[in-house]
Amino acid sequence: MAEESPDSAYHSHGSSLEEEAERTEEEEQERLLSYWQSVGRGHQVDVPRDMAEPIHQLTRNNSPQERQSIPFTLIQRKEKLGDLLYEKRQYGKAKWACITIKEKQYEQSICLGFMKLMRYICEQNSSGLYLGITIPIVTIVHTNESQSEMMQSVTVAYYLPEPLQDEPPHPFDSDIIIEEWPSTIVYSRSFRGITNEDSIMREIGLLAEILESPELCLQDTFIIAGYTNPAAANRHNEIWFLQRP
């Protein structure tokens, strides 16, 4: 019987390793999709099968070292008995990819908006490249003037990484708009957990009580800054009040 040459044995072994890696990759992709689909059902959001690749790619490229934080200048930190009450920050003029969604529930809107932005970030853009994650992903919410009720329409926005600010890749999804936001001063307070209409209205009320002059800020427009994806249970969030121009 002819012996297998070392070279052919190497190639046979190499191809089996590649097949095993592909199988493992597919299994991981299925696991992540299944997880997102189960979370989506809880928010009455359908996560389609074509989200498997963007979810996997985003997860694979989403280590803390690879996430780019949106740059800002810290103006003031307000503390009480060692606890941070809020920060006053200045964010510079910058371009954002934005999508406005209007579903019955806030959770549905942010999940759907985030999924569309994920596709844009994960190669569904004119550059054909993975754009990279920046944090936080922000959601603009609106209330009535008395801050007693939240409007259903929200805007989910992704800050374009620094190298793409001058020439942002064009989104294939016509619902995604590239906007340039002016330089803005925000008052930011951190909170954890899920974000829904109740928790957001509660956080708006808490920050309004803490600020010395809340009337200097917009009274019907606020930002929820999310540092963890909407599928996470114990999310790290911030509520931002926007100082009037």
UniProtKB/TrEMBL annotation:
PANTHER family: HEME-BINDING PROTEIN-RELATED, SOUL PROTEIN. Residues 17-29 have a biased composition (Acidic residues). Gene3D superfamilies: Regulatory factor, effector binding domain. Belongs to the HEBP family. This is HEBP2 protein. InterPro entries: Reg_factor_effector_dom_sf, SOUL_heme-bd. Residues 1-31 are annotated as: Disordered. It comes from Ardeotis kori. Pfam families: SOUL (PF04832). SUPFAM superfamilies: Probable bacterial effector-binding domain (SSF55136). One of its GO terms (molecular function) is heme binding.
